[in-house]
Amino acid sequence: MGFVCTRSPCTENMASSSSYNSPCAACKFLRRKCMPGCIFAPYFPPEEPQKFANVHKIFGASNVTKLLNELPPHQREDAVNSLAYEAEARVRDPVYGCVGAISFLQRQVQRLQKELDAANSDLIHYACSEIPTALPAPPGPSSIQSMAPRQRLIDHYDRIGMGNEGGYYEAPAIPTPYNLPWNDNPSGDNSAAGGGSNM
Amino acid sequence: MKESGRKHGALSPCAACKLLRRRCAEDCVFAPYFPPDEPHKFASVHKVFGASNVNKMLQELPEHQRRDAVSSMVYEANARVRDPVYGCVGAISSLQQQIHSLQTQLAAAQAEVVHMRMRQFSSSSNTGGAMDMAVDQANMGESLWSC
């Protein structure tokens, strides 16, 4: 009966203050007495009833309790906030939830990367077209003569951030969601269950 | 008899009913989306959302949208299992950072392109001006000698 209460210094202080004043949003919603040490009290204040309502609708109070109990106290607030975000997204879009946002952002990343590639190849074109018009290298061994234009190109690349230190953005691997109806470039991987390794 | 209503045509219970240890009815709402050979799919969804919540959510959707809904829930559940603190909100945050970085790089590259274009334009203009000056000097030389 009731929820498992875990004791920690921060939850005890916050829970006792909220239970003296009014029950937390979770206990209010569930019509239960908000006990001192209530695991929800620090994260679901009574003035934000919708937050718990969404989380309960999508994830269920007992699943949230289990999840919070498995986390150290200093990570619980972030966990609750991310759950609240996902729950609200799922309430607004029952089919795709926040996965719709991920797909949209991934398409934006792809578009920006393409534009950046195009701009960089324009720069290469300009840099190459400048090389023949540069001052001739002073007479000397042929190896020095052949390196001078190449060094100017390398210097130019460094200046515009295309050198070894800057340049092309390598996106960390984030598993592409399954094919959404509006995907222009289907990932070809319809099995989101496997997923990738970097989240 | 058992095959009617089960699109996957399997006689064994679906992954959901197997995990929940219940009889898999012919009209089981989970059966089309949680085949018995993918037990991990339902396991993570059940752990994060709970079977009854998933059931409710699917029942509220028209049939043609349920497959996509299940796929997105599986994706979210897997993300939450991998990252219990941030789930797929971590991915959203990371993508937003990537976008910001790419926008900065793109702005810099595009500014450099404009700079290079202007440089090429001005260098071609200067070349034309120098020739005009040479012609004028030649003309001046002639007029001096003509005096």
TrEMBL record, chain A:
Q: Lineage of the native species?
A: Eukaryota, Viridiplantae, Streptophyta, Embryophyta, Tracheophyta
Show where the LOB domain sits: 22-123
Where is the region Disordered? 180-199
* Family of the protein in this entry: Belongs to the LOB domain-containing protein family.
Q: Where is the signal peptide?
A: none
This chain belongs to the protein called LOB domain-containing protein
> Where does the chain cross the membrane?
none
Check the record and name the InterPro entries matching this protein. LOB
Automatic annotation (TrEMBL), chain B:
Domain annotation LOB: ranges: 12-113
Pfam families, per this entry?
A: LOB (PF03195)
Q: Tell me the first and last residues of the signal peptide.
A: none
The record's listing under InterPro entries reads: LOB
Q: PROSITE patterns, alphabetically? A: LOB
Look up the domain of life of the source: Eukaryota
Transmembrane feature ranges: none
> Which PANTHER family is this protein grouped with?
LOB DOMAIN-CONTAINING PROTEIN 3, LOB DOMAIN-CONTAINING PROTEIN 4-RELATED
Family membership noted in the UniProt record: Belongs to the LOB domain-containing protein family.
- The identity of this protein, by name, is LOB domain-containing protein
What is the scientific name of the source organism?
Answer: Salix brachista
